[in-house]
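Design a sequence for this backbone.
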């Protein structure tokens, strides 16, 4: 292993020495095929008085987590990514000034020139010799208008504590922030030979600045601090993160804000076409870190040291002494002593007497898309497989098989069509009740599925200056019963004691009720003709979680092929998603397209199939 020696730099020669020292570090760290990355998921601690108290504490908490990771992981991280809003959460923003990267400023060595949080983060990166990526609220004075602007900003500190990148979020989904004049295509080169691009939160669903970073700057490694609102059926955090990485064949380091009760969950390290290296979508608001080696070459198979998940919920050590050392603002210490601050932060607020009977459980409260606007058809259980017989009072299982070859369209004038080819088995057993099933909100395999098509506008700004965003989707979605109103909803009910699940699907055969135990999709092929080439298109897949503390999972190896073909007679793209192995624990699967410019073509190839070819309809196949 290469070892580098730090030198003491005189302030008068600091710029020259930093450049020389950085060159030495680049030679040291660049001679490897991998680097080690850590993404942190957490929820900001909160003070109920002033927002700066929260900021000061969470900055120190970041340092404590970084220190833990640098001293307790199998592989020492080269870069640590913290989530969007991780320093403030729901607290009132507390803006701080962030210098330009052109000045190569090291706030740690500039005394009181910069705010304490910026200095402390800089000193943390410098002391621990690690790249730190944080999201904060930036205050910026616009000299031309003499107005102070407020940005949602990602800041990157290098191993010397210098600010080497600053990205101001372009696609906002919260009030109280300004948008930079033009989307900023921000990137930086690390000393281990990797150039990273930055984007934040729901930038992942917009064209810029990502398109410039991908197409013009040829970036292949991306940092993604996010506070993601997970939504069924297609947009939970890990679904869109893995889908984006696969579609672009890029490395993606997503650090997600972890507040499941407010729909925020999902972090991961993803390796393009090779699938996820490590990910987590917790049901609880624990602090955690995902740490793994990452290939520098995105085309290199992921034969890296397997990533590990670290629980970082423990109280930071030497809390009081560290806080005393970094807090210099007299106004803070005048209002609250360090001891009082510590007590306030770590005390657990007990429920009032009137609330003692209420049982609070942690769960990921998922948002739901407007599925009622989808065009859908129920996948029915059809023929029972040969060889089944039922004797009196006999307890047996039965299996049904359904084959689908169907094209569904939505829209009146310019139809958007999707073709589905599916072979699926449903398994049933007699004499089962809901008590025989594990209470798990992501276990959809006992229920119903629909094939679904959507073409329309969706608002990703959460009510803030809503700008319609065109979306086209084709997929298979889960439902709790045969009604569309039941689709895209968790299967469990935590309002009961003990928690329960919705009644699984059932069929009646030979006078007996058979309850569904599982579903196996042997083969799925979905074909969509996306109108226009100015679009971003992702494969999205969600499977049942591997543990009760995780909602949903991803396959370690891609279980599908995803490819596109140009349509000869139109400006459209033919997108294909085809499974290459059976899936027994499906949550949802589909093609998700963000369309920025619709083609002028008035008819597409799949629509022509509908007009000129007879449609094969499955026996006992119903439409709602």
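Sequence:
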């Amino acid at each position: 292993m290469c070892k580098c020696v730090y030198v003491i730099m005189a302030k008068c020669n600091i710029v020259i020495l930093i450049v020389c020292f950085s060159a030495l570090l680049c030679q040291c760290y660049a001679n490897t095929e991998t680097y080690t990355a850590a993404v942190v998921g957490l929820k900001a601690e909160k003070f109920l008085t002033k927002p700066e108290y929260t900021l000061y504490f969470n900055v120190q908490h970041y340092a404590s987590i970084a220190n833990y990771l640098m001293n307790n992981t199998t592989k020492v991280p080269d870069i640590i990514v913290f989530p969007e809003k991780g320093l403030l959460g729901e607290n009132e923003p507390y803006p701080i000034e962030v210098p330009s990267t052109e000045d190569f400023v090291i706030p740690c060595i500039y005394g009181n020139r910069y705010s304490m949080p910026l200095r402390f983060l800089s000193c943390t990166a410098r002391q621990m010799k690690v790249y730190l990526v944080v999201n904060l609220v930036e205050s910026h004075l616009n000299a031309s208008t003499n107005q102070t602007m407020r940005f949602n900003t990602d800041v990157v500190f290098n191993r010397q504590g210098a600010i080497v990148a600053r990205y101001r979020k372009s696609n906002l989904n919260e009030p109280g922030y300004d948008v930079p004049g033009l989307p900023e295509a921000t990137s930086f080169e690390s000393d281990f030979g990797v150039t990273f691009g930055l984007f934040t939160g729901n930038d992942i669903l917009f064209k810029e600045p990502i398109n410039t970073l991908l197409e013009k700057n040829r970036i292949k490694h991306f940092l993604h601090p996010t506070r993601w609102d997970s939504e069924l059926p297609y947009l939970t955090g890990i679904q869109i993160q893995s889908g984006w990485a696969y579609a672009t064949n890029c490395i993606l380091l997503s650090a997600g804000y972890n507040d499941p009760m407010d729909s925020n969950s999902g972090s991961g390290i993803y390796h393009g076409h090779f699938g996820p290296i490590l990910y987590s979508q917790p049901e609880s608001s624990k602090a955690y870190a995902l740490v793994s080696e990452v290939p520098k070459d995105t085309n290199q198979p992921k034969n890296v040291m397997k990533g590990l998940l670290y629980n970082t919920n423990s109280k930071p050590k030497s809390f009081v002494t560290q806080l005393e050392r970094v807090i210099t603002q007299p106004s803070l210490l005048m209002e609250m002593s360090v001891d009082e601050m510590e007590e306030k932060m770590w005390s657990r607020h007990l429920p009032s007497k009137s609330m003692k009977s209420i049982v609070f459980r942690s769960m990921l409260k998922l948002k739901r898309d407007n599925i009622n606007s989808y065009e859908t058809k129920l996948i029915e259980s059809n023929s029972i497989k040969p060889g089944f017989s039922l004797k009196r009072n006999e307890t047996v299982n039965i299996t049904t098989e359904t084959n689908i070859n169907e094209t569904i369209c939505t829209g009146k004038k310019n139809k958007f069509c999707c073709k589905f080819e599916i072979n699926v088995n449903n398994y049933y057993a007699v004499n089962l009740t809901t008590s025989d099933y594990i209470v798990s909100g992501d276990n959809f395999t006992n229920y119903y599925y629909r094939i679904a098509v959507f073409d329309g506008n969706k608002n990703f700004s959460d009510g803030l200056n809503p700008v319609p965003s065109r979306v086209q989707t084709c997929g298979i979605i889960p439902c709790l019963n045969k009604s569309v109103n039941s689709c895209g909803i968790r299967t469990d009910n935590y309002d009961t004691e003990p928690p329960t699940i919705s009644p699984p699907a059932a069929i009646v055969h030979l006078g007996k009720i058979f309850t569904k135990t599982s579903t196996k999709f042997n083969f799925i092929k979905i074909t969509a003709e996306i109108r226009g080439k100015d679009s971003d298109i992702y494969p999205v897949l969600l499977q049942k979680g591997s543990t009760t503390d995780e909602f949903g999972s991803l396959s370690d190896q891609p279980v599908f092929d995803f490819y596109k073909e140009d349509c000869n007679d139109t400006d459209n793209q033919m997108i294909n998603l085809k499974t290459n192995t059976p899936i027994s624990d499906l949550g949802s699967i589909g093609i998700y397209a963000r369309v920025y410019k619709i083609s002028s073509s008035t008819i597409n190839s799949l629509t022509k199939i509908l007009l000129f070819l007879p449609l094969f309809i499955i026996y006992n196949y119903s439409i709602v």
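The chain has a mean pLDDT of 81.
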